[in-house]
Amino acid sequence: MLDWWLPENVSTYGQEIDWLFHLIYYVTGATFVLVFVTMLVFIVIYRDRPGRTARYTHGSTPLEIAWTIVPAVILVILTFLSVPAWSRIKMHVPPTDFDVFVTAKQFNWQVTYPGTDQVFLDEMHVPVNRVVRVHLRSQDVIHSFFVPQFRMKQDVVPGREIVQWFEVTKPGKYELPCAELCGFGHSGMRGWIYVHTPDEYAKWAAENLTAQAAPAATTPGEKTAEPKKEGKGKK
Ligand SMILES: [Cu+2]
């Protein structure tokens, strides 16, 4: 029902996240309305009027017990409803042979693939309908790997390797912003994830992931004799 205001979901586990998100949103939304309507009604009913005197009270024990227990029960229920999704999505990585390594730094995503040293700056290429295991590291401060359309957000913490995953159901180009304030260039720290059809991906991998692929995929003729100095380089 609230789907129109979220970015399109293209992830296999996105629906589960959205369902929980909306459930929590409705619960907190209803609480918000209830509290504010009550407050406004009380402001009007108990406003100051001529001849009215203040009455002191120690409160109502049954009421206090009720408004303590009801939210506690709601929170416990929400916890039990979230645990299966948390366990399935965050605690377990499905079997896969597709790994990507991401090292965050101020203020870029450095993406590498097994078998080659080439670093792709702020861009990742993956095939559609395939479980992608991402290994997240940071070389300086805490960043956050966030892909709204994948319903995936994971802090990237220096000194740790955090392994997460996603499986995308629709080819396209998806934004990968950093979602953790990480310094003065934080707002410009973003990359793109290109999700390809299997054929397109195979083509891209053949051109870019072979051991002898030239840096920044230039003409096939000029191997990688020696690393070039500045200029050229990454886009
Ligand atoms: Cu960052």
Describe the protein:
The structure is a single chain. By secondary structure, the chain is an alpha+beta fold. It has two domains: 3-47 and 57-91, Helix Hairpins (Orthogonal Bundle), CATH 1.10.287; 99-219, Immunoglobulin-like (Sandwich). The protein contains three helices and ten strands; from the N terminus they run ααββββββββββα. The chain has helices spanning 14-45, 61-91, 198-208, and strands at 99-105, 108-112, 120-121, 123-127, 131-138, 143-147, 152-156, 162-167, 172-177, 190-196. The strands form three sheets. A five-stranded mixed β-sheet has the order 3-2-1-5-8. The two termini are 41 Å apart.
- Give the class-level CATH name of the largest domain: Mainly Beta
Amino- and carboxy-terminal Cα gap: 41 Å
Q: Kindly provide the radius of gyration, computed on alpha-carbon positions and rounded to a whole number of angstroms.
A: 26 Å
Q: So, the CATH homologous superfamily of the largest domain?
A: Cupredoxins -  blue copper proteins
Specify the number of helices: 3
CATH topology descriptor of the largest domain? Immunoglobulin-like
